[in-house]
Structure formats: structure tokens, C-alpha cells
Amino acid sequence: MTTLSEDQIRRICAEVDRRFDEQLAFTMDLVRFPSLREHERAAQDFMAEAFRARGLEVDRWKIDVEALKRHPGASPVASPYAEAYNVVGTHHSEYNNARSLILNGHIDVVPTGPEHRWRSPPFQPVVRDGKLYGRGAGDMKGGIAAMVFAYDSVRAAGLTPKGRIHLQSVVEEECTGNGAFACLLRGYTADAAIIPEPVGEELTRANMGLLWFKVTVPGDPAHASGAYTAGVNAIERGWLIWQHLKGLEARWNAERHAHPHYCDHPHPVRINLGKMQGGEWVSSVAAQCVLEVRAGLYPEWSIEKGKAEIEAVIAEAAALDPGLPAPVVEYHGFHNGGYILEPGGEAEGVLSAAHERVAGEPLKAYASTASTDSRIFGVFGSIPSLVYGPSCTAAHGIDECVDIESVRRVTKTIAVFIADWCGVAEA
After folding, report:
1. Which terminus of the chain has fewer CB atoms gathered within 10 Å of its CB, N or C?
2. Phi-psi bin for 275: left (phi > 0), alpha (psi -120 to 50), beta?
3. Contact 132, 27 (CB under 8 A)
4. Beta strand ranges found along 385-427 (DSSP E)
5. Measured torsion, CA atoms of residues 378, 384, 385, 386, in degrees rounded to the nearest 10
6. Which of 15, 59, 152, 173 is catalytic?
7. Is 108 part of the annotated catalytic residue set?
8. Rounded CA gap, 122 and 308, in Å?
9. CATH code for the part of the protein at 6-207+338-426
10. How many CB atoms lie within 10 A of CB 264?
């Protein structure tokens, strides 16, 4: 049962509509920032100013790498953090018994791929056919704008949230999750969290765990003229290891029936070869090859189980060349288990009611084959974490875009959720 009156809901939704052109312009401004890994600072400065302009208490800080290294739940730090800044804007309240909320989104985006294949430049946002195109438009700057303007719309409707609200713009979601982890380590907590990832206006019931690892494969270099009689090509050896890893993927997918959230999914586990580099000279047998791999793990599994099976398969493949040094496996980036949002929680009930009020249909839940920052809050902060956001096409791909009307509906749903979950006072 909602705590809001019909008039309050109507006013909130009307404010979303009234401000939506401004919201779309804000989203386009965000997309213009090429906030790739190690280049997020300018976009975070923009977010800090946006929070400040709304009268929020702004906390902008560089992530403490040493604090992350001391916590066993954080992912390994393998790349520079010189420009890794988080920004949190806090709405404080005098109502001590009201429920609090985290609204969390990530500002970092992935590389664009070949820019000439995009219909329009990836960091020059364009509206076409009811969609906003650009790298990060869906994943997840459209969601960041939705949570900011959802908060705005509650206030513009003449309502003051009674609960404390932390609006978080974080880095590192696409490679470690350490940005959200840094928020938790800094003391930010709440009674619930919403993460508006582009999940098609559904609720994410389960997220996969995730491992990133690098396999350095030694070869036996020789002159290419004697390639069939001397030397062992590290690239070919690396490819053999990759084939064994694909076999592991097939075996893990065959086990899906043992995992209730994924038993009906045709291919829940993906092991992806993201990068492969090897060799030094065209006329030399390659001396070394490096594979960089991403492996999904069922949320019920421990990280240790995943690593043990991966390493066993690599060792099995490497044993086919017994006279060579063993490959070296190093873990970098994502190093985390999964997260399951158990059904029936209060926060889910409030979100379901808000979604049905706005969309006119019941909220659906699904199991994701990806990983999100929900695990940070849910597993390590014991905060019910609701991943719910707009519809996106080609996330991480060419011509990424977000559906504009979907963003509008999600903004209304989050706004109604804020008012209902935190409670409101008439201003």
C-alpha cells in the first residue's frame, strides 16, 4: 500500500514531464564527456556541480587505493587511480525515523570500438527514432540522469523527502566495482539502494559473479623457416588454451539446471576472450602470447571455486607441451561473487507498486548474465539493492542507444519510489 496520495503521485509525474527536455539535455551533456577509464574526472566535476546546484551536500574524493587493497572484497587494483574520483550528493533530513536511500550510477564507459562504424560520432549524442545515441547513453548515463531528475521532480512537486538520500556518481563499475566499494568504505549506507542500469524496465533478481584474468603463455621461439621442425608458437599454444576454456564454458552451461535463477536460460555463462596479443616478429615463431579473459560465475559459487576450475583447465591444456614453462595466470579487474535479491522485501514491494502505477503493468524480474554494483551494497553492506532502469540497445557495442520514453517512465517510477520509500512532507 502506497503512503502517497493520488494527487502527490500526479504532481510528481507531471514534474517529470515538465522537466523532461531539460533531463534529455542533461543526459546529452553527460554523453559528451568521453569518460573512459582514467578519464572520468571532467564528468565527475560536472556531476559535483550538478549536485551542488541542487543544494545537496557534495562529497568529492579520490579513491583510497590502499583502503581498497586492505579489504578482501574489493577487486585487485591494476591500473592507475590518479583520476579516479567519486562524487556523492546528500539530501539530509530532520526526520530521524524515515527510511534512507542510495541512488547509484556509474559515470565510466567502455571504449567505442572503430568509430568509423558508428552512424554518428560516439561522443556526439544524437536523437533519432525516439532513441538517444552515444557511448554511455544507455550504460548508464541515461540512468544517472533519471535518478537525478527523479529527485528533482519530487522536490519540484512541492514535496520534501523525509529520509536521507545519497546520490552517487561512481567510477570503476565497468572493470572492478571499486568505485561503489569506495562509497561503502567511506561510510555511505542506507536502508535500500536503486541502481538504474539499462535493464529494460525490469528488476534484476540475480547477477553473475565475475572474474577477469590474464594468461601469459610462453612459446619456444625459432626462425620461421623451421617452424614445423623447431620451436613452439606461443600464439598457437594460447589458442589451444582458449579452446579448453571454451570447453569449460560449455560444461558450466550444462550445469545451469542446478541453479534456480538460470535453469531456463539457454546460455547463462559466458567466458569471453577480450584481448589476445602475441609475437614480436613476422618471421619468428612467437615467443609469448597473452590472453585477457572475462568469466561469468553462477551467483551461488565462490570465487575460489571458479578460479580453481579455470586454472585446472589451463594446466590441462598446457600439459600438452610438457617441455615448456607453464602459463602464468594473473587476476586483475573484476574479482567478485554474484548477488541474489531475495524476493518479498519491502523495497521491492514499493518499487513494484511504483512501476505498476507508472507503466500500467506488473514489474517483471529476471536473472542477469552480467554483473553490477548491486553485489557491493547487497553482499558487503547488507543493503537491499534494486537494479532497475531503462531499455538500451547495443550496450558496449556500435551505435549504443537508450529508448527515450523508457527513460521517462523509469524516471517517474524512481521518483514515486523516492517519495513512497523515504516519505514526504509538503513543502
Report:
1. N
2. beta
3. yes
4. 385-387, 392-393, 401-403, 424-426
5. 150
6. 173
7. yes
8. 39
9. 3.40.630.10
10. 10
* 352-364 residue pLDDT tens: 999 999 999 999 9
Measured between alpha carbons, how far is 208 from 264 in angstroms, rounded to an integer? Answer: 15
Residue tagged active-site, from 40, 108, 139, 201: 108
424 with 102: CB under 8 angstroms? no
Residue range 32-83, pLDDT digits in tens = 999 999 999 999 999 999 999 999 999 999 999 999 999 989 999 878 899 9
b/e for 158-167, b at 16 or more Cβ within 10 A? ebbbbbbbbb
For residue 149, what pLDDT is reported? 99
> Does residue 173 contact residue 52 with C-beta atoms inside 8 Å?
no
Instruction: Please answer whether residues 390 and 402 qualify as being in contact, where contact means their C-beta atoms are separated by less than 8 angstroms.
Output: yes
Pairing of strands 328-336, 392-393: unpaired
pLDDT in tens, 103-154: 999 999 999 999 999 999 999 999 999 999 999 999 999 999 999 999 999 9
What DSSP state is assigned to residue 359?
A: H
**Whether this model's pTM surpasses 0.85:** yes
Tell me the domain boundaries of the chain.
Answer: 6-207+338-426, 209-336
Does domain 209-336 fall into CATH 3.30.70.360?
Answer: yes
Give strand pairing partners of 294: 212, 272
Q: In terms of residues, how long is the chain?
A: 427
Place of cell 507508472: 358
Q: Check pLDDT > 90 for residue 277.
A: yes
CB 182 within 8 A of CB 66: no
Structure-block grid coordinates of residue 15: 514534474
